[in-house]
Design a protein that fits this description.
The protein is an alpha+beta fold and about 575 residues long. About 25% of the residues lie in helices and about 30% in strands. It folds into four domains: about 20-255, Rossmann fold, CATH 3.40.50; about 260-330 and about 340-380, no CATH class; about 395-475, Immunoglobulins (Immunoglobulin-like, Sandwich), CATH 2.60.40.10; about 485-570, Immunoglobulin-like, CATH 2.60.40. The strands form seven sheets. The chain has a nine-stranded mixed β-sheet, sandwiched between helices. The radius of gyration is 31 Å and the shape is elongated.
Length: about 575
């Protein structure tokens, strides 16, 4: 009986041990002035015993005049030599580490050739959050190829698409732990490790990180790495023997709660808090710890705590505290050194201290996933917006069922814009004025306005500060429609939105019969409506159970009134 009990326990132990096998892929983008640091980091990896459960695979890219030119893939093994001696798996020749496809190919190659239940990727190189002012630094610049991986243009996100799910993603690069970068990569890894501040050229301490994989859990490893990083840069530490005093931060962010935090942050600060933006900029911004290019980044947690303290005994403090608490759920571990502010260290957020920096970079920022929170609207209002929006674009107006129909294409703007549409018909004394508001980031939307004569339209964009664009003006010609029936939309993708609209010309009234046929000529749905006045009528197909049971394909919609009829083809996808 004892042997029967021991066998399952041994199997369970073996399964647990196998479940913690690791493959760690290190992408060293060092075809630039960091190549000597890359050589040192590989030597640091080789200086310690590699745990038996760890595959440590490095792809390096160094200049042609370095001792290890071009792209090289190695499996790290321990040695005591100042030279890199780990076995060369592949010599790739000249490669472009600033191409997102190069990073993507290495990740997929690495996990295919060295499968493991636990996966980690290290992206090593120059970095600077999502932007850089005048130099192409962003992340992983390749001087030989004059290329880099752009964050704002979606290249970092593209580099990490279609890869196996990561347990840990680590950025060994300056300033990459920001809410903007986290929003780009949160779908690919459970934990993201990095620094919101500058990272010294020596980078992360691989000689103390590697032993962590021998017996620690994923959660423990992800929390211990930033601790080892900060310890290594203490005066006299292994990465700081000279005793330099540098401002340092490092954190591990748990990605699963991030969507909830982003939603709440958007609701509290970017929508509800826009009215307080000027007061927050005036009273808080100058007191926050500033970092990175042009000192335009601040710590997101310090920002929220400062806002909370600004509104004691106020209802808004409850909601700010709730948002802060949601962020606390995201932070698995954070710390800082040599920074006389607290709390600082979890992640940065872009908060330019002067209007000129906002004006210079907001268009690039608008491409980021985090921009969907409407943080730009908060910043724009807080920094004082006196710039009118660009004018919208209009498609040529057409007549549809007696309605003037056209599309407003939104200009790029940091605000949520509203649109004032003025319609002046030739036979009307006063113009009709309509107001529309589109979703933030929406490319455009359709407008349909009933008219009875020719005339002109004028459209202007209005931002949240009341600034108005130059109006766009177009004329239109009224055309009395004949007997017409339309399916909206057509083709039908979402059946819950499907409807039928028709138009009866002047003098035509009575019973309107609508019938839907399949291509075999079989009736599948029919309804009749008594229309006492000419003009437009409608039928919500989405409310008909029979419509939702129809298969995908092409159908014929027939409208009959008296002896007249009209047909329209309908496609259900």
């Amino acid at each position: 009986m004892l042997k029967l009990l021991i066998l399952p326990l041994l199997l369970a132990f073996a399964f647990t041990a196998a479940a913690e096998n690791w493959t760690v892929l290190v992408y060293l983008a060092a075809d630039n002035n960091l190549w000597q640091n890359a050589v040192q980091d590989i030597n640091d990896m080789e200086s310690v015993a590699i745990p038996a459960n760890l595959n440590l695979i490095v792809q390096s890219d160094m200049p042609s005049d370095s001792p290890y030119p071009g792209g090289q893939r190695r499996r790290i093994q321990q040695d005591n030599s100042p030279l890199i001696t780990s076995p060369l798996l592949q010599n790739l020749g000249s490669i472009n580490s600033g191409d997102p496809q190069t990073l993507n190919s290495f990740i997929n190659w690495g996990f295919q050739h060295y499968p493991a239940s636990r996966k980690m990727v290290v992206i090593w190189g120059h970095g600077d959050n999502w932007f850089k002012s005048d130099t192409p630094k962003w992340i992983c610049p390749d001087d030989g190829a004059q290329s880099l991986i752009s964050v704002a243009d979606g290249e970092l996100k593209a580099a990490l698409e279609d890869i196996p799910r990561l347990d840990i993603l680590l950025f060994d690069a300056c300033s990459m732990q920001s809410v903007e970068v986290l929003a780009e990569v949160m779908d690919v890894a459970d934990y993201v490790v990095g620094s919101a501040e500058l990272v010294p050229a020596a980078g992360f301490p691989y000689q103390t990180m590697i032993p962590l994989f021998a017996e620690n859990s994923v959660e423990e490893i992800s929390a211990l790495i930033p601790q080892k990083y900060l310890e290594s840069y203490e005066p006299g530490g292994i990465q700081n023997p000279q005793g330099f005093i540098n401002p340092l931060t490092c954190s591990t962010i748990r990605t699963s709660p991030l969507p909830g935090f982003f939603n709440l942050f958007s609701d509290i600060f970017c929508l509800g808090g826009v009215g307080e933006a000027e007061a927050i900029v005036e009273n808080i911004r100058g007191n926050l710890w500033e970092m990175n290019t042009a000192y335009c980044d601040v710590d997101v947690e310090e920002f929220m705590v400062s806002c909370w303290a600004m509104y004691p005994q106020h209802e808004v403090s409850f909601w700010i505290n709730l948002t802060w608490g949601r962020w606390y759920e995201c932070v698995a571990w954070s710390g800082s050194a040599n920074i006389p502010h607290s709390p600082v260290g979890s992640a940065a957020i872009w908060f330019p201290w002067h209007r000129q920096y906002f004006d210079a970079w907001w268009r690039k920022y608008s491409k980021l996933e985090f921009a969907k929170t409407r943080w730009l609207a908060f910043l724009n209002f807080g920094l004082g917006d006196e710039v009118p929006p660009d004018p919208p674009q209009l498609t040529a107006p057409t007549m549809v069922l007696g309605n003037l129909t056209f599309r407003i294409i939104q200009p790029l703007d940091p605000d949520v814009l509203s649109y004032e549409v003025t319609v002046q018909e030739d036979n009307a004394t006063d113009p009709a004025v309509y107001t529309y508001t589109a979703d933030y980031g929406q490319e455009g939307f359709w407008v349909s306005i009933p008219v009875v004569s020719s005339g002109s339209i004028s459209v202007m964009a209005i931002d949240s500060c009341g600034n108005r664009s130059v109006p766009v003006e177009l004329s239109f010609t009224y055309e009395e429609p004949g007997l017409t029936v339309l399916m909206v939309p057509n083709p039908v993708r979402a059946r819950s939105l499907a409807s039928v609209r028709w138009y009866l010309p002047e003098g035509m009234t009575g019973e309107v019969k609508l019938t839907l046929y399949n291509l075999r000529g079989q009736m599948v749905l029919s309804r009749s409506f008594d229309q006492q006045n000419s003009g437009e009528g409608s039928w919500m197909l989405s409310s008909e159970p029979e419509f939702h049971q129809l298969g995908r394909g092409v159908y014929i919609l027939r409208l009959e009134i008296g002896k007249r009829h009209h047909h329209r083809k309908l496609t259900i996808l």
